[in-house]
Amino acid sequence: MFFRALNKALEKPAPQRFTTSWPGAQENDFYSVKLEDSDSNTRILIRNRKTTGYEALVWRGEQSGKEKTLTERDIDPATFDLRIEHYYQGYQFNYTDPGKFLLMELIRWHKIVKYRDRVSQSLYNKKRLVREERMELLRHLVERKIDNPRDEIYPLMLAVQKYSRKWLYHPDKDKHKAHLELVLDSFVDSGELTKNGTNYVVTGKALVTLSEFELNVQRHQDQIKTAKVGNRLTWAIVIVGIAGILSQAWMWAIEQGVM
């Protein structure tokens, strides 16, 4: 089964150079086959299958890769771990189990995934893209900066990270991206971000702005709570006053013999 999987993958061997970036990746449909023996620190990239054997690039330890032709006798399935990477129209499927790889190829799993995502994308495209509030976006950018101090923000990648790759194919993508860039530029004008070419970098002022915003929010909430307490107290006084008036009216009625 090991060699069946290996040979199946080599029916469409990966070229020496290819792209996994969009849109070039749309044309991809090939397999990269790798072998690794951790005990001997040997790594093998199988490039092709010929009548003479497998054309491969072999690394042993820290040595640079060497071109070799290997036969099945040179490859012991009990020694080497197999890794097959299927690059298919922007997708990448990884397999380390020969049996699972053959099964997924039999049912054309890569086509099933693409069809499933196409249906999901169609449903997603019917949804309205929600524009983020400035402070919510700034909070997200600050968290990114804390996680990665060298972080730079690229609007397109920021949108993909927040909304997934489906965002790229939404019909309102360009409008949403334009709004996002306007928000980022507004932060540049007020000093929370600086612009480095087409990228943005968070500054220390972003923390000050967030702190002031959260303080103002807290003050506003406190004012609402105080107003609610005042309203309740006012109604309590009114109710007590009405109760007092009704009590006096009741007493007067009794004294006058009305009751």
Structural summary, described in words:
- The protein has 259 residues and is of the alpha+beta class.
- It has helices at residues 2-9, 98-106, 109-125, 134-147, 155-163, 173-190, 205-255, and strands at residues 29-37, 42-50, 53-60, 66-70, 81-88, 91-95, 193-196, 199-202.
- The strands form two sheets. A six-stranded antiparallel beta sheet has the order 4-3-2-1-5-6, with helices on one face.
- Strand 7 (193-196) and strand 8 (199-202) form a beta hairpin.
- The relative contact order is 0.07.
Topology:
Blueprint: H1 2-9, E1 29-37, E2 42-50, E3 53-60, E4 66-70, E5 81-88, E6 91-95, H2 98-106, H3 109-125, H4 134-147, H5 155-163, H6 173-190, E7 193-196, E8 199-202, H7 205-255
Antiparallel strand pairs: 1-2, 1-5, 2-3, 3-4, 5-6, 7-8
Helix pairs in contact: 1-2, 4-7
Quick overview:
The protein has 259 residues and is an alpha+beta fold. It has seven helices and eight strands.
The Cα radius of gyration reads 34 Å
Q: β content, as a range?
A: 15-25%
Low-confidence stretches: none
Sheet with most strands = 6 strands, antiparallel
Run of helices and strands: HEEEEEEHHHHHEEH
The averaged pLDDT comes out at 82
Shape: elongated
